[in-house]
Automatic annotation (TrEMBL):
Pfam families: CbiM. The chain crosses the membrane at residues 51-76, 111-132, 144-167, 173-199. The lineage of its organism: Bacteria, Pseudomonadati, Planctomycetota, Planctomycetia, Gemmatales. This is Cobalt transport protein CbiM. It is a multi-pass membrane protein.
Length: 209
């Protein structure tokens, strides 16, 4: 356990922690996600993408200490997915690129994988949210479930990438990564629930249908 870098407890992958083929595969996957997100993008959606990019960037810049040993950060990929639908990878890619070049957070080789790890759960939220709305679930309940679920999805994907493609063998990383992000799942689930509830009251058209 002492050999596990503390930075690996974050969902945001650092540079130099995955094998080359996985890094290349991450860029291929990210390119596919972005191409699909850009397909027939109407001009009226660009400001919304910009606003959610900023929200994602700011939220994931906030460091939350975890027991004095390491830190985690909010993600808001659930909110991005609920608001942008299939355009969510655009906001996430912009936010992660800003993190890399403005804050030196993450690595260039892991940028593609980070986009995939955070964007895929956001797309899952985009697919599930309309169905939950049709079922009649309250906005706060929908947001809480999807906000926490998106964080859980990102943590699981992060674990799988490190376990299968990491440059070293971290056999106990699954339990530790998930445990480290339980507080984030709970806090972010509540926050996204509040945000979705508020947005649905004041400007429901911001939520993807």
């Amino acid at each position: 356990m002492s050999d596990v870098p503390l930075s690996l407890f974050a969902v945001h992958l650092s540079g130099g922690v995955v094998a080359g083929p996985w890094a290349v595969g991450g860029f291929v996957g990210a390119a596919a996600l972005l191409a699909a997100a850009c397909w027939r993008l109407p001009e009226r959606d660009i400001p919304r993408v910009g606003v959610l990019s900023a929200a994602f960037f700011v939220a994931s810049s906030i460091s939350l200490p975890l027991g004095g040993l390491t830190s985690v950060h909010p993600i808001l990929n659930g909110l991005v997915g609920a608001c942008l639908g299939r355009r969510a990878p655009l906001a996430i890619a912009v936010g992660l690129t800003l993190h890399l070049f403005l804050l030196a957070h993450g690595g260039l080789d892991s940028l593609g994988l980070n986009v995939c790890i955070m964007a895929l759960p956001a797309l899952g939220v985009a697919a599930v949210h309309p169905a939950l709305r049709r079922l009649g679930l309250r906005a706060f309940t929908r947001g809480t479930l999807l906000g926490g679920g998106a964080v859980a999805g990102a943590a699981i994907l992060n674990f799988l990438v490190l376990l299968l493609g990491g440059i070293e063998d971290w056999p106990t990383l699954a339990r530790l990564v998930l445990l480290a992000h339980v507080p984030v799942m709970l806090i972010e689930g509540f926050l996204v629930g509040v945000m979705v509830s508020y947005v649905e009251k004041v400007k429901p058209d911001l939520l993807a249908s």
